[in-house]
Design brief:
Keywords: Methyltransferase, Transferase. One of its GO terms (molecular function) is methyltransferase activity. It contains six helices and eleven strands. The chain is of the alpha/beta class. The strands form two sheets. The chain has a seven-stranded mixed sheet with strand order 3-2-1-4-5-11-10, sandwiched between helices. A four-stranded antiparallel sheet has the order 6-7-8-9, with helices on one face. It is globular, with a radius of gyration of 18 Å.
Length: 251
């Protein structure tokens, strides 16, 4: 099996989406959680890019991830800032906790990593189970327009000690019936012109139609659904390149 958010890809994520970086989502989530006085859960917490600003704003947030490397980085960032919380290993479709939460949040399309429809339905049911009555689910999705197969793109980052990390990405598969793509991400770390580390990541990603996802949420037991585009509350999407956020209430 190819690696998935292993050491190099997690390091790049932390360089590219560092703590404090935002797409407009941090302020949006903070505003939408303003009335939340109880516990908040972030599945797919990653390196803590969203979790840490919310903790610093006074919210009670914990999270989980499938990647031990991401969790290691998240714990380090929390420790550096003197923040205490619980972050742990878990999967969206199968985590089981005794607690109920006032809100569950999944920013930046992380939910789409569940590319199999059955797993995504299981995850939504699991979220509903872990929410208190009247609790909020807030989740971002995005579409995948203009998919081109086997066309590579490359990005480069420099680490603090001067190493160079390159990333070559290309979509190798698209299933228009089951609504997902699969990309290969090739990471390489270079030092003084020598390749010292490499990693190949298998990266599946699902997409949903806007009204399709609304219907799935309703079928799963959510109501009072608000759809927003590009983190503008209640602004219905008008083009395929916008970020789309769903806010739904558990029965």
């Amino acid at each position: 099996m190819l690696s998935y958010y292993s050491k190099l890809s997690s390091e790049v994520y932390d360089l590219d989406k560092y703590i404090g970086s935002t797409f407009g989502d941090i302020a949006f989530y903070r505003d939408r959680l303003a009335t939340c006085k109880g516990r908040i859960l972030e599945p797919g917490v990653g390196t803590g890019r969203t979790l840490i600003p919310l903790l610093e704003a006074g919210f009670t947030v914990e999270g989980f991830d499938v990647s031990d490397e991401m969790l290691r980085i998240c714990r380090r960032h929390c420790a550096e800032r003197g923040l205490e919380t619980n972050v742990f290993s878990g999967k969206m479709e199968s985590f089981s906790l005794p607690a109920k939460y006032e809100a569950i949040i999944i920013p930046t399309g992380t939910f789409l990593l569940l590319h199999e429809r059955e797993d995504s339905i299981k995850a939504l049911k699991n979220f509903h189970h872990h929410l208190s009555p009247g609790g909020k689910l807030i989740v971002d999705i995005f579409l995948q327009p203009d998919v081109t197969l086997n066309q590579a793109s490359t990005k480069t980052w420099r680490t603090e000690n001067g190493d160079i990390i390159t990333l070559e990405k290309k979509v190798i598969e698209v299933d228009y019936i089951k609504q997902y793509t699969v990309s290969h991400h090739r990471y390489e770390k270079w030092r003084d012109g020598q390749l010292i580390q490499t990693e190949l990541e298998h990266f599946p990603l699902r997409w949903y139609g806007v009204e399709e996802f609304r219907n799935i949420l309703e079928t799963t037991g959510f109501h009072s659904i608000i759809i927003s585009a590009d983190y503008e509350q209640g602004l219905y999407p008008t083009n395929a390149h916008q970020s789309i956020t769903f806010e739904a209430v558990a029965k």
